[in-house]
Amino acid sequence: MHVGEMTWLPAAVSGEMRPDDVPAAPGVDLSALKAGDQDPLEVVVEIAPGKSKRGWNYKMPALEAIVRRVQEQTLNGFLGHQKADDVPTQFPAVVTHWVGAKMQNGKAYFRGVVDQAAVDLKRWIRTGRVKQVSIFGYPKLRTAGGETEVIDYEALSIDWTPLDRAGMQTRIVATGEIEGGKAMGWKELVQQLKGLLQSGDVTLAQVAGEMGWTPEQVAGAIDGKWVERKAGAEKAALQAVAEALGVTGEMDIVQAARDAKAAMDKDRERSQQALVDGVLKEKVAGEMAQALIRKMLQPAGKTKEQIVGEIDALLAEASVKEALSRLHTDTPAMVAGAVRAVGDKGGPANVRVKRTAI
User: Fold this and answer.
1) What is the DSSP string of 5-42?
2) Most exposed residue of 16, 162, 323, 350, measured as fewest CB within 10 angstroms of its CB?
3) 172, 45 contact by CB (below 8 A)
4) Of 158, 109, 160, whose CA–CA distance to 131 is shortest?
């Protein structure tokens, strides 16, 4: 047996699962746990099978054993692990009561109630300053394929640890108040949200998206004149465009813009064609050879350097070289045998010569 393999989580409060989605173990009295707590808090943490930083491979049976332990007997949570020698005699202050667990989609989920005395821990969790837990207990190991596998686990506690302690990956997937607890006022809610924004666990865009706010609504609520100024700026910009296009009277500014774009596209196409013609004259001899290479090019939107590179690549291909060689050496069929050499008294071949007195 090995004692105290530490596991950790880069926590993300994502709202994937509510605390109520994880059933409490039999005999757990949530009302008693929250009695007198004016600021109740629950969390759900997720642990998936896989390798820890220590190199141990946690198999599914090990996670299932920890889940059963919580489902049947619950577990306590401390700030940091005990020393193995202190386990038989020491009882640290409990900061979290792990009251429920379940397996879902191959992952283990543990529901915890933060103790009302752990005021600092609540603040650390809400602000993202504490976001890692670690399973403490007795793992059952075996060696397979040269690696150490954890195939069973006798858990003693699920403890909160400082950031970046070595272990297997886990993460916080939900935080929430205990059902029936005192609802937080808007100041408390804002303070909690501010902490999440500062820690990066939640972004302003996520908040606006969840609330269904548009940029105009947000800006208008902060600055009542913002929408008016924005509309004025857009109107001024549209007027400047109309003047630049020479739009007057009842002319359609949209159509004028389309016509201007079409003219620009044609001008761009002519410029690109001229660029291709110039490069072909520099790189390829003969009009027929240039026409052949032009058909193979795909010069749209490319610079001169890119077109030169494409032509060089084509000219290096064996099939292109052969095609160009034929253009330079083959004699057209109607020419071969049709005209004799200069000075041949027989005259052009296949041509009847008729002499006529003038």
Assistant:
1) ---B-------SS-GGGSPBPTT--HHHHHTT-SS--E
2) 350
3) yes
4) 160
- The conformation of residue 162, written as its DSSP 8-state character, comes to -
- From CA 38, how far away is CA 177, in angstroms rounded? 10
- Let me know: does 257 contact 245? Beta carbons within 8 Å: yes
Task: Write out pLDDT tens, residues 127-174.
Answer: 888 887 888 888 888 888 888 888 898 888 888 887 766 555 556 555
The DSSP string of 169-219 is BEEEEEEEPPTTSPPPPHHHHHHHHHHHHHHTSS-HHHHHHHHT--HHHHH
In order of 277, 283, 287, the CA distances from 324 in angstroms are 18, 13, 11
The residues, ordered by sequence, that sit 6+ positions from 142 with a Cβ below 8 Å of its Cβ are 148, 149, 151
In tens, the pLDDT along 1-49 reads 444 444 433 333 335 678 889 999 999 998 888 888 888 999 998 888 8
CA distance 192 to 31: 24
Name the DSSP class of 355. Answer: -
Q: What is the dihedral of CA 10, 16, 19, 21, to 10 degrees?
A: -140
Neighbours of 23 (CB within 10 A): 13
d(CA 54, CA 59): 14
Beta strand residue intervals within the chain, DSSP E: 42-47, 50-51, 57-58, 75-77, 96-104, 107-114, 133-144, 147-160, 170-176
